[in-house]
Amino acid sequence: MGAHRARPVVGLAVGRGTGGELADVFETVLTRIGLLCSTEIGITRSPRTYHSYSSLNDAGGTERIRRLTEEDADHYERFCREQANAGVSAVFRTAINAQSLYLVRERLQAVKVDPVTPSLLLVRDEAQGFYTGENQHTPDTVTRTMVFSKEITEKVLTFAVRRAWAEWPDDGPARIFLAYKFHLLDGAFGAWVAEIAGRLGVAVELGQPDTVNRNLVEHGLAPRTLLVAGNEWADIMHVVLLAAFGGERQENRYTENVHLHPAVDGLVEYQTVHGSADDLAGTGRVNPTATLRAAAAIAERHAGCPGAITAMEQALREARDRGVGTPDAGGRHSTTEVVAEVLDALDPAPDRVSVAGA
Fold it and tell me: Mind listing the pLDDT tens digit for each residue in 267-291?
């Protein structure tokens, strides 16, 4: 008798807006992929439904918003730590309020990773800078205090270089750009980068965001470009980079948030690039493509279902070829109808490629 294989388990965290609908999609699709590769995949769902920006504003009052923001952050941080301690390596999270989310990212030292194209790997520094920090309120004034540190900068750059080598194992990154507003930091950030790059044995080009934008416009992308960026720039530019170089829309993409804190080392959070879409909640019109892709990626990378990503891409192509899509993608179908069409394409029929054999 062969050795018993432990059941893979993934985490699930759900925000308001369309979070509940997309969580249902994720559970349904992940379970189906597991069945197709003869693997039972467990799902541990956080007991709290986290606020979106819109639902927080509906809560009323700055003090109440501050309290709920902190409660959501504390709860989600505990959930991530509990999953990591239990040996869970992946969490799928729908969109939640950014302020709560960035408190967690700062505490758990997160970076966001997106291979925008085969030539461009984007690593967003979510662990420091303006998107992190704390607010202090006085009448008619909000003072936000944030930190940059050499320690975090080294963790982020070291991870980014290692991930780039995983992306391009034969040659590694050809060019490494850093896009930060470093002119505001008294020369300290540039000195850190030079020292860290020297230890890593890599050449790094540190640029102001407007300089990086100009170079991208003027010269385009060099092959095997690693772009490491502060969120002050990268959050805005992410969707632009997807459209300009990848020919993609944010509604179709997921990203990985990798936590670098030792307490959660190895935990990867998958999320859709699009937000909570509160205006679509309950209408059955939210685009499930990014969630479908995230479910396939988690199944393949964290639950032992080889071929899931390729099979999902094939199923999505078949659905598109038949004109199936939500209204934002030019179709006339509901979320449920799109998911059903894609799942039908995943079914192992004689003329189809199974997940295990994709």
Answer: 999 998 877 777 777 887 889 999 9
Q: What is the pLDDT, as a whole number, of residue 357?
A: 44
Q: Are the C-beta atoms of residues 224 and 119 closer than 8 Å to each other?
A: yes
pLDDT in tens, 133-150: 999 999 999 999 999 999
Rounded to 10 degrees, the C-alpha dihedral 261/263/266/272 comes to -70
For the domain spanning 8-109+261-358, the CATH number is: 3.40.50
Confidence of residue 262 (pLDDT cuts 50, 70, 90): very high
Q: Are 29 and 295 in contact (CB under 8 A)?
A: yes
* Mean pLDDT, residues 145-169: 97
**pLDDT tens digit string along 36-52?**
999 999 999 999 999 99
Residue 248 burial (CB count, 10 A): 17
Query: What is the domain partition of the chain in residue ranges?
Result: 8-109+261-358, 111-250
pLDDT of residue 121: 97
Strand-pairing partners, residue 258, are 111, 268
Residue 353 confidence (pLDDT): 41
Contact 121, 91 (CB under 8 A): no
How many other C-beta atoms lie within 10 A of the C-beta of residue 108? 24
What would the 3-class secondary structure string for 218-274 be?
HHCCCCCEEEEEEHHHHHHHHHHHHHHHHCCCHHHCEEEEEECCHHHCCCEEEEECC
What CATH number has the domain spanning 111-250?
3.40.718.10
